[in-house]
Structures are given as structure tokens and as C-alpha cells.
Design goal:
It is globular and about 60 Å long. The protein has eight helices and no strands. The chain is mostly helical. The longest helix is centred in the C-terminal third of the chain and has 35 residues.
């Protein structure tokens, strides 16, 4: 029997379709039609693509960490998730390099432009580190829920504080909007990964409980 969670595959497929719809409508709709209700509604739907990708990344990392913890321990789970986060962060720059090569005339600074992968990678890495803050499922849910809520709540403060000005310019691109230099920022977008990790922890706990009940039932028979 396959161990894949089909409903998550469907959710990922839906996110891809929404993303394609977003870019297609934005690029191919005539300017005169961009004031129509259909285009407005399409833009609203488009807004769900990035949150879905980030949230599902969080769900996936929690499920993977829970499975690895049961098999090899928490240290191995943290190592696995953090490595995945670093891989995605590296892929973000490789993607930018490929875009730079196939689009002659681009400025070198575009290699450091912050897009969704630049946020997803570090967010997954930090979520992996947070896995050690709790041992139980309830603890993981609370930890990730608190971190997700805190990320959202602190966003207005982070974006307006003058303390960020003292950081290197390229670092500020990850913290608050900077025009063409970023599309996403850690605040609040990393919160979607953390919220997904909270939900993934719940799913992992439910699946484990079902497995344990099935094992107990088989032993009774």
C-alpha cells in the first residue's frame, strides 16, 4: 500500500494551478480588461498561491520530522529538516542564476533578489531548529502556533523600526519591502511555514494514533 498522502499531492497540484493562473492572467490580459470583475476575482484567487506553497512546505516538514523522530530520534529529524531548508535556499540562487543567464541585459544585483524560495528555505531551517523545543505533539503544535502568530504580530514593528537600517542592505531585503529587490520578506511570510508545521504536527499525531489503535486491535484478535 502506498504511504503517500494523496490529499497533500492534490493540494500541491492546486497550488501549482493557481500559480500558473496568476502569472498567465497577469501577463496575457489586455490592459483594457484589467479593470473587469473577472480579472479582479482572478487576482484574488492568485493571492492564495504563495500562502499555499509555504503552508504546505510547513506541513511536509512536520510530517517528515515526526516520521524521522520515531525512526532515528529528534537529532536526526532536526538535521533532515535543516538540510532541506538549506537546499531550498541554495536552489533559490541557482534559479536566479539561470534567469540571469537566459535573460541578457539583467543587472547582477538581480541575483540577490528575494523571492519565495529565498524565504521558504530559511523558514524551513528555523522550523527545523524549533523542533527541539518540544517533545510531545501538543508541544510542537503550541511552539509552531506561537511562532507563526508572533511572526505575524511583529511584522508591523519590524517593518517600521529604525534598528533594521543598521543592518547590511541585502539583509534588509529579507526583512521588509524594498521595491524591486524583493517580492517576499520573512515577516510575515515565514509565518505560513510555521503555521503549516503546526498543522503537520497534528496530522502526524492523528496518523500515529490510528496506527497504534490498529496494532492494538490486531494483537487482540
Amino acid at each position: 500500500m502506498s504511504s503517500r498522502r494523496v490529499y497533500i499531492d492534490w493540494a500541491r497540484g492546486l497550488a501549482v494551478l493557481v500559480m500558473i493562473q496568476a502569472h498567465t492572467f497577469d501577463s496575457w490580459t489586455r490592459a483594457a480588461e484589467k479593470h473587469s470583475l473577472v480579472f479582479r476575482d482572478a487576482q484574488i484567487v492568485s493571492g492564495f498561491a504563495a500562502p499555499l506553497f509555504l503552508w504546505l512546505a510547513g506541513v511536509g516538514l512536520a510530517l517528515s520530522a515526526a516520521r524521522t523522530t520515531r525512526a532515528k530520534g529528534r537529532a536526526a529529524a532536526v538535521d533532515l529538516v535543516c538540510r532541506r531548508g538549506l537546499e531550498i535556499f541554495l536552489l533559490a540562487f541557482l534559479f536566479r542564476l539561470q534567469a540571469f543567464i537566459v535573460s541578457p541585459g539583467s543587472y547582477p544585483v538581480s541575483l540577490f533578489r528575494v523571492d519565495i524560495l529565498n524565504i521558504m528555505g530559511p523558514a524551513i531551517f528555523l522550523a527545523g531548529l524549533a523542533w527541539v523545543l518540544a517533545e510531545s505533539t501538543a508541544g510542537h503544535v503550541v511552539v509552531y502556533a506561537v511562532l507563526a502568530t508572533g511572526t505575524a504580530m511583529i511584522t508591523p514593528i519590524i517593518r517600521t523600526t529604525t534598528l533594521v537600517d543598521a543592518l547590511p542592505l541585502w539583509v534588509t531585503w529579507y526583512i521588509r519591502p524594498a521595491g524591486d529587490y524583493n517580492t517576499f520578506t520573512m515577516f510575515p511570510w515565514a509565518g505560513f511555514v510555521l503555521a503549516g508545521a503546526a498543522c503537520g504536527s497534528l496530522i502526524a499525531a492523528a496518523e500515529q494514533a490510528i496506527e497504534e489503535r490498529g496494532l492494538q486491535a490486531s494483537l487482540l484478535v
